[in-house]
Amino acid sequence: MNHDNYDDNYIRGILNSVKSIAMVGASPVNVRPSYFAFKYLAQRGYDMIPVNPGHVGKNLVGKPFVASLSDIGRAVDMIDIFRSSSHIMPVVEEALTLSPLPKVIWMQLGARDDAAAAKAEAAGMKVVMNRCPKIEYGRLSSEISWMGVNSRTLSSKRAPIPTQGMRLSLNRMSVGGGATAASDRAAKNKSEPT
Amino acid sequence: MTDRLPGFSTLAVHAGAQPDPTTGARVTPIYQTTSFVFNDADHAASLFGLQAFGNIYTRIGNPTTAVLEERIAALEGGTAALAVASGHAAQVVVLQQLLMPGDEFIAARKLYGGSINQFTHAFKSFGWNVAWADPDDIGSFERAVTPRTKAIFIESIANPAGSITDIEAIAEVARKAGVPLIVDNTLATPYLIRPIDHGADIVVHSLTKFLGGHGNSLGGVIVDAGTFDWSKDNKYPMLNEPRPEYHGIRIQETFGNFAFAIACRVLGLRDLGPALSPFNAFMILTGIETLPLRMQKHCENAKAVAEFLAGHPAVASVNYAGLASDRYNKLARKYAPKGAGAVFTFSLRGGYDAGVSLVSNLKLFSHLANVGDTRSLVIHPASTTHSQLDDDAKVRSGAGPDVVRLSIGIEDKEDLIADLEQALSA
């Protein structure tokens, strides 16, 4: 599995199939990226679970915080890890103890741990690194186009007007697999020691 | 099917646009409105806090303009774009994100005369200092780098003489200096040159020229390549430090590989205010749909006119990179194999007076201060666009007293040549 860039179909398949997402490192502070992503994914109809031991007893957008993945107490489809690269491995190791096993390990924008990814993949999980599910959902649905962002997708179909809790179609035509070549190259160079 | 890469012409027609969600209108509607209603207080707060996608106020974003932005980002191969009121506004907004008072940027000496003025005089009052370098001497860029250098600025095809810049060589200087390379791609358009493919980190345009293409609407755009690491060495506080106006958001951390475009929108456009009219965005979008067809014709006509002039006894020299004998022909074949553009200069044996006389004798060419129109245009730079430069700077920027600049349109080339022939012999 090449983790430098992902085919749109891979990301599309994940976002179309998962229903519940546990977000490790979710923050109740409303200027943190994790708060943005949590709130957006909840608005798009995902069953969101905030995981952060520092905030147990509080709610995030109406969802109660749990201390750890083991405390969720029900099956969860995807683990979205909002921690820096050096804190990924223990989360993946904990995810591997869950039963049933989550289908997807997702590491946030800026986070990458190839060893943890290999472990998760060996157990049959799909892995995404250094991406934001909010950005990817917004891109594949073209909702992000409101901000002048290149969705790298095309469609001649009329889109619905999004409402609260509504899932959007992610099945637009991808432009070259959804890659932005120069940016992907730069990210790869950054992740390699020089 | 999903992995097929649509071609440039398909993107020029489709990228960013889809049928209107409300009405089904197939052409992008002109959303001529200042403001957009919020669903409720939480929605409003989410939009103001940059947490949700959506519209607030046309100074920050507009649905018609957003289609234009995504289309240009797609054509240039960037991650995102921001449209503004003019090419000049694009330059101010870009440099506002990169420079603090007392900082410097390096600019190629061969630039649009308006940019030379803006950099030399207007930006001086912001404390942004320009250092000039010669695009024909890459070493001059290296020598101009100082610890306060924050960016390098060049034109891909340079005004006024249509010379071709060695983008890759200058991108390497920028990379070594740890600063972004900004390329003004106005005269090439992404149809002829895509600077991001050659190492540019930021691309700017005057949309007024070939992209809009019909001489009817001003506009500018900034394209984020998504290539530059803004967090490195904390050189760019606008992107890297918590922003007090957004309760402590760090732009680069929150927006990843399109952070620069977002910074330009929420810190530049929002606060400086040079918003593009949605009507202009519509006109420019319509123009872009035919960009590939027009550029082919512009380049074909320009080459024919340049060849005619090169063989005319009244002409001393022609500067057109598409001619095999031109000093920039090798670079043109590398960077712009589909054509060397349609703006170039030539000089007359009769000097300044012959130039003035030629301009007044032309019947089809319009004498005006623009380029990149369907119509063919002519100007005498030394007395107009470059008149505020001193004589030495005029010559160095390719706008000496005997130089005439043409912007070749999409008329029949035989008619353009006939008009030049009668004007040269009048």
Structural class of chain A: alpha/beta
Q: Report the CATH topology name of chain A.
A: Rossmann fold
Instruction: Count every beta strand of chain A, where a strand is a DSSP E run of 2 or more residues.
Output: 9
**Helix and strand pattern of chain A:** HEHEEEEHEHEHEEH
Corresponding CATH superfamily of chain A: NAD(P)-binding Rossmann-like Domain
Q: Report the mean per-residue pLDDT of chain A as an integer.
A: 91
Q: Give the distance, in angstroms, between the N- and C-terminal Cα atoms of chain B.
A: 60 Å
CATH T-level fold name of the largest domain in chain B = Aspartate Aminotransferase, domain 2
> Helical segment tally of chain A?
6
- Please write the CATH class name of chain A: Alpha Beta
- Domain module tally of chain B: 2
What is the residue-mean pLDDT of chain B, rounded to a whole number? 94
The tally of helices of chain B reads 17
Radius of gyration of chain B: 22 Å
The domain tally of chain A reads 1
Structural class of chain B: alpha/beta
CATH class of the largest domain in chain B: Alpha Beta
